[in-house]
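Notes from the 1:1 (GR / supervisor)

We went over the backlog. Supervisor wanted to see one worked example end to end before approving the batch request, so GR pasted a single chain during the call. The sequence is below; no edits were made to it. Supervisor asked that the structure be written out right there so they could see what the output format looks like.
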Amino acid sequence: MIKVTYRNKQWEVPGQQTVREVIETVGLNPAMVLAVRNGKLVLDSEMLGHDDELKLIAVISGG
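Structure output shown during the call:
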């Protein structure tokens, strides 16, 4: 299972999914978060394995 953390929420989702699929699975908009695995930013096309941990960070914009 992939462990996903976003703010104070945590999920476990099945492995062998892309980052984008995982983000959509937990109900978030992929355009509104950045994904970090092992301290490094990953692209939404990156494939995740069963034991990965993914941290999602909200994108903040403004002017």
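Supervisor's comment: The helical segments are 19-25.
Batch request approved.
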